[in-house]
Amino acid sequence: MSALRWGHGASGLRRALWPAGRPGPLAEEGALSGVWGRRRSSSANPCEQDRRKDWGHAELLEVLEARVRQLQAESVSEVTVKRVGMARRLPASGGFQPPGRAQMGPEDAATEVSGRWAQKLDKEKFAMEKRKQRLEVKLQVRAQQLACEHRLRVVPRLLDAQLASCLQRWEHGAPRSHWEEQLAQLLQEAPRKLSHEAGQAPQAESASVRRESQQQRLLAFFECCLLTGHLPLAHHVLVTFHSRFRQQRRLTLAMYNTVMLGWARKGSFKELVYVFFMVKDAGLTPDLLSYAAALQCMGRLDQDTNTIQRCLDQMARDGLKLQGLFTSMPLCQEEQAMVLRAVHKAQPAFSLPPRPRPPPQVNTSPLLREIYAKQSGPVSYPKLHLPLQKLQSLFQQQLDVEMATTVAVESVEKARVLTKEVLQARNTLKQLRAEWVQALSLGLQELKASEARAARAGRCTIFPYLCVLTEEELAELLLQTLQVLPPQGESLLSLAQQLGLRVFNRHTVHRKQLSSQVRALQQRYHSYLHLLASDTPIGILKPHPAFTELLATAAERTLTFEAAEVPMLCPPLPWTSPHAGAFLLSPTKLMRSLEGTMQHQRLLDGCPPAELHGALDALTQLGNCAWRVNGRVLDLVLELFAAKGCPRLGVPAPPSEAPRPPEGRLPPGASPAHKAKVRRELARCLKVAREMHSLRSDALYRLSLAQHLRHRVFWLPHNMDFRGRTYPCPPHFNHLGSDLARALLEFAQGRPLGPHGLDWLKIHLVNLTGLKKHEPLQARLVFADEVMEDILDSADRPMTGRKWWMEVDEPWQALACCMEIARAVRAPDPAAYVSHFPVHQDGSCNGLQHYAALGRDSVGAASVNLLPSDLPQDVYSGVAAQVEVFRRQDAERGVRVAQVLEGFISRKVVKQTVMTVVYGVTRYGGRLQIEKRLRELSNFPQEFVWEASHYLVRQVFNSLQEMFSGTRAIQHWLTESARLIAHTGSAVEWVTPLGIPIIQPYHQDSKVLISGGIQSLTFSQSGDTSQKPNTLKQKNGFPPNFIHSLDSSHMMLTALHCYRGELSTHVLSVTHSGWEGAGGGSGPRRAAPLHGRPSPDGRKGLTFVSVHDCFWTHAADVEVMNQVCREQFVRLHSQPILHDLSRFLVKRFCSGTRSPKHSKNAWIGKLQDTLKSVPKTGAFDLEQVKHSTYFFS
């Protein structure tokens, strides 16, 4: 009940902190004694010390009273400082007798002491008066400065003397009606100096990127001011920056245009002319957007014809076309109408140009030529299993969810009995939250006021961002963050990033609701549904322990998720550009990246739109797979979850099961060794508690969402990381999770098993058990029939039977498969049984498969099943056997560690290192992996672990060099190329075979200091592009990231061909602003490929999803998917991938003019030589992959 007592006593916290007793002078002295420091030691008697106190109090009170008046004076414009009187009178007699004067008589001593102290006091008072007078003058000056700062500046201070004189003459002499004349003349003025972009001396790349980052923040500030209705403030900050030469260099034409557009929307012509003066003063040339702002403003004010015509003439002299105002400017319909009104006044015969219909853009990748090749006659989209009316209803439900921005989900935690204590805790929480919302709102108001004052002083602050949402909305978001904060705390920086994204997402949704975008979205999406429907003819921040305890006692049943954290209730929007796709209203990035980094988005925006079609269509296809919850598995998991979990089966235990740290205090005489032992045990308990809380929370979110969606069909929109690997957007409930997470999901659309579907279900089950990894497929089928009784028993009595499923590698997926097999074998016709179960096909050490194919390495290809064979090859066992050969040779030569390792080298010991070496693991990391495996061996002599792990990692790398010589050569070439690129000052870039531009976000850490009221935080950011590349991370990251981009390309090719099969092109007739067909976006019309290979039942397209190199489909379609998978792997590696990469890197990093004295020229020369030395390839025939049974199995 301590939490409840804390809650009820919260209102008395201020009283508890107030010092006891009356706040008299003695209390003040006690409160401030620490400020004055320690007293000096004295041999004076108590009477003398009391008199010293009297004098000390007098001086102290005098200073305090002056300080109080100073603080009061800071809040008013004028300050009156009164003379400070003596707080205490001097004693008439018995004054202080200083040491060394004891021989004087009492009266003489008293008189001398009194006189000396009086003189000293008069001198100090005189000095104090002088200080007060100086302070009064400073405060008056500061008050005048503040009064001036509170007035927002409108008229700019121009740096060019001629323009400044012209502005002053027009401002004071010209009548108001001549402002339009001034604008016309001003437009004809030639720029007074070179533009910033042309006039500045070449800068270092890091300085250029740093300035670009500053400019992005400034532009965002101005745009946010306009969005939140603070246009005068934006103008004021623009004027302030423009008036200072060093700050003016940060301003760009886009910033001036942003403010001009704001004044144009208000019809404020005079202020718009001020901005034009600043544009000319900055040496910039107005562009189309500048003229659009001027014409829009003149259209609103109905200006005279001559001024408008002069503006149009000047625009023509600048080489700008009038039609461009209506075809390439980001103006809304109302703004375009005002521009057109002004144009018609000067040129009545002008008519809007017809919107051009550009030719369809076609992807030029040879790998996608068939996908986007033109065929005669359209082929319809592969259909979903739901009718049009149902899909329209689901769309409306999803739209309602996203407009509400959050989703309330009932928790699956075991419900507590509603005792008096629980009800009281919930009531206390409700009251506290109301108080906190009020307090937070007040605090946000004060912060906004403070930031507004800083902005009025001409600084770029966070004030407009604080105005994006109301104080109440921001307070609610803060409390939602507190609700899910773990007791052990979370990084403050991470929380700040999440909170910023939630504010941005909510604001974006609000803006779309207020505009006409929602109505337009409904029209476009309904047209899209006609293609899909089956009936188309129709730092660390911790919560207070008391709050944690109170929250646990209240046991509230509701979890709140952001709309973008929950699977969608309708098919996602198709990806049509890097800025459009996935959720209906919630903004989603096409490419995930560290917050604040822009290099990925810049590459995507600069990429020709057609080159991204393959990736966009693959993401759309993955998101179009409909899912449902496996209810039987969910019920069993919930049963265990409510009964304190089962960690052995992946169901986390509640925090109450965490180990308890040692209780009580250490005895005074405890030895250092005992203290260290206790500290280690305490650290272990805290670490386990954190891990258990994290796992439990993750399972709680997943299971609660599964329960929430139990009877629904839902979809998982996808995006990709910077390497091109795809991921579902909803983070808590998807198919990329653990064994338990995957077992909860199945396809919403079923497929009859057909003649071979049941066999594939059995093979999949045996694969999940991990019991027959080295056996052929036929042997796995035989094994499945042998254990059929155990399979059926597991399906019928999972918790009370023989529990065979609990002993396998993937228990929950195996159980779900047992249930599916049981239903199929008991069906009247197993071939006709409609199965929703996903069957997986895994790549055999897929990274090494890509390396072997790149190098045409026959030995390596055989080890990773690129060659046909009767039995599956196991590369891990092969490496272990080669290591054993080396060990035996060393043992014979008397190497002690090799002799100790006899009988301990196994597949398990080397597997993790072999698996990760292809992804860049170093010898140091590999040694740690092997050390961990050796420590798990109970009979291995632990005193040899360190030496043995060093020996084994060396032999593992030697074995891989022996078995995969081509692979190691390619890996070394990639590493060395990246090292040299980083030394030239650039981050490594490349383009995937499907046209996705990639850049590695590894830079030197930049230290950022955030000063706060409670504490200052310093954090490191590695994604800051203004910093030099991190050479170590660039070179170690390039090989694995490049291979990941290849496996992503293979997956996307497989997805596109599985989904669309036979190939044709069909441009949709759906036309709307911002969306042209299925692949529109704001750019030119694109050709949308709609095609499908007929499956055995005549249905077009296969259901296909993936977990990187693990491909999923229906049991009936496994054979077709396997065929497509192999064909696309061969097509991918038939391209000259390494030579294409070499040519791209040479062009990107070695071309251009070089200064003969530049320090990086030597690096560029070495880089060019290295890049042109592409590793030679072997004689492996890729066509053999098509006949390899165990390539993916």
TrEMBL record:
Keyword flag Hydrolase: no
InterPro entries: DNA-dir_Rpol_C_phage-type (IPR046950), DNA-dir_Rpol_phage-type (IPR002092), DNA/RNA_pol_sf (IPR043502), PPR_rpt (IPR002885), RNA_POL_N_sf (IPR037159), RPOL_N (IPR029262), TPR-like_helical_dom_sf (IPR011990)
Record region (Disordered): 651-674, 1076-1095
Any GO BP annotation: mitochondrial transcription
Catalytic activity: RNA(n) + a ribonucleoside 5'-triphosphate = RNA(n+1) + diphosphate
Gene3D superfamilies membership: 1.10.287.280, 3.30.70.370, 5' to 3' exonuclease, C-terminal subdomain, DNA-directed RNA polymerase, N-terminal domain, Tetratricopeptide repeat domain
Lineage top rank: taxon: Eukaryota
Assigned GO CC terms: mitochondrial DNA-directed RNA polymerase complex
Residues in PPR repeats: 252-286
Bias-annotated ranges (Pro residues): 652-665
The EC number(s) this enzyme carries: 2.7.7.6
Any matching Pfam family: RNA_pol
SMART domains (UniProt xref): RPOL_N (SM01311)
Family assignment from sequence similarity: Belongs to the phage and mitochondrial RNA polymerase family.
Protein function: DNA-dependent RNA polymerase catalyzes the transcription of DNA into RNA using the four ribonucleoside triphosphates as substrates.
Listed name of the protein: DNA-directed RNA polymerase
